């Protein structure tokens, strides 16, 4: 299988090619210039492998949650490439990819569950929890919530233990903050989303029939859904 994966969800830009069991990646930390960087990185990983878009089985991209602008850049690029090459696209959870990357970087965490958290701004987190056996399936629904809500839900949950944290969103509940911390054995706030993890998570999804046509690809913002529900409640009063 040959899968090209893209990500610009947060403060990094990455492109990876999973080719017959091996994965090569271009990764750069960059808060801006994702639009300018992305296509040259695509050309580089394909060129290094001696492949063209037509040689791919599919593309994969982070479908969110994450920043509005970051998600739109990678998704728009994936749509354009997939449409031009007539290839399907596999949408992958950014939070699942974050957890997979942390598990790869921390082999000592392999026995526990990993809670992924991205900074959703407005004093909130995008977060969920992932286990080892089914890395694409969240153990709790992906959500955008206040830090205190997150900490309470984790304390009241019966999630597998030990529980580790991955991602910059956990800074809201770090020991240095003025909030009660989440019940995490350890947290890596420097964990980032990597396209290589998106590519590898996309493989079983592609084999399971989860790919979509380019025009069907949609980002998952979460915050828009929450805002809409709040508006509905207000109108119902």
Automatic annotation (TrEMBL):
The keyword Transmembrane does not apply. CDD domains: ASKHA_NBD_TsaB. Keywords: Acyltransferase, Transferase. Residues 29-151 form the Gcp-like domain. InterPro entries: ATPase_NBD, Gcp-like_dom, T6A_TsaB. Gene3D superfamilies: 3.30.420.40. It comes from the Bacteria. One of its GO terms (molecular function) is tRNA N(6)-L-threonylcarbamoyladenine synthase activity. Pfam families: TsaD. Belongs to the KAE1 / TsaD family. TsaB subfamily. This is tRNA threonylcarbamoyladenosine biosynthesis protein TsaB. The lineage of its organism: Bacteria, Pseudomonadati, Pseudomonadota, Gammaproteobacteria, Cellvibrionales.
